[in-house]
Design goal:
alpha/beta, 5-stranded antiparallel sheet, 30% helix, Rossmann fold, 4-stranded parallel sheet, binds S-adenosylmethionine
């Protein structure tokens, strides 16, 4: 990792600054943090509750060791880390994530942000997101396919059929037409037990 390419740019107010790298920008402000990368204009970190209330996963969904899960464009969302933490290695297969986001860069940027003077609120959030980024980049916990969906459609990893295919505001960026994306997601599912 080329740390010299990472700079701290001060912002306008107290606790405001940006950790800037040509491939990732992390903006920190009084109460939070926002991300953009060279691969996507906005990287979000939605909660499991958000996924449930927006129909991304079934409302009553509970982690299940038999479910084979694929998330397209997980970003820094809570869902996959929540699955990993709840099943603690008891699941048959690791969740698969397809996302071109550079998680090592995210980790380095967040660690650098934590070394600045930040509010307690921002610190708590950054630590939570750091934990998630570490889970995403741990191959013993997550099978991360570091690529864009459209690049790996034919890859052998994708020939598996999944019980749950999750896509929250990510497939949109793939350039795959929405009806085609729907068809693809259905074909990636096996049992259609969870029809989203
Ligand atoms: C708006 S964020 C959504 C993150 C997360 N799903 C959530 O709801 O918080 C979009 C994510 O999709 C990823 N992404 C962008 N283009 C993609 C593509 N072509 N294939 C797979 N993932 C992509 C980005 O890297 C980013 O992590």
């Amino acid at each position: 990792m080329n740390h010299s390419a990472m700079t701290i740019v001060p912002g306008g107010g107290p606790h405001e600054f940006t950790v800037a790298h040509p491939d990732l920008k992390v903006e920190c402000y009084g109460y939070g943090v926002s991300f953009s990368s060279s691969t996507c204009p906005i990287i979000t970190c939605h909660s499991v509750q958000y996924y449930k209330s927006h129909g991304v996963i079934p409302r009553g969904y509970k982690p299940n060791r038999d479910n084979r899960i694929l998330e397209i464009g997980a970003g820094l969302a809570e869902f996959v880390p929540w699955i990993v933490q709840n099943l603690r290695g008891s699941s048959r297969e690791r969740p698969v994530v397809i996302d071109p986001l550079n998680y090592s860069l995210v980790i380095n940027s967040l660690e650098l942000a934590l070394r600045q003077v930040i509010s307690e609120e921002a610190q708590t959030l950054i630590m939570r997101l750091l934990d998630r980024a570490k889970i995403y980049s741990d191959p013993s916990k997550v099978n991360l396919i570091s690529a864009r969906l459209e690049e790996v459609l034919d890859a052998t990893e994708l020939q598996n059929q999944y019980d749950l295919v999750v896509d929250c505001q990510a497939g949109f960026y793939s350039g795959i037409e929405s009806s085609e994306l729907m068809r693809l997601k259905e074909s990636l599912k096996r049992r259609k037990k969870f029809f989203i």
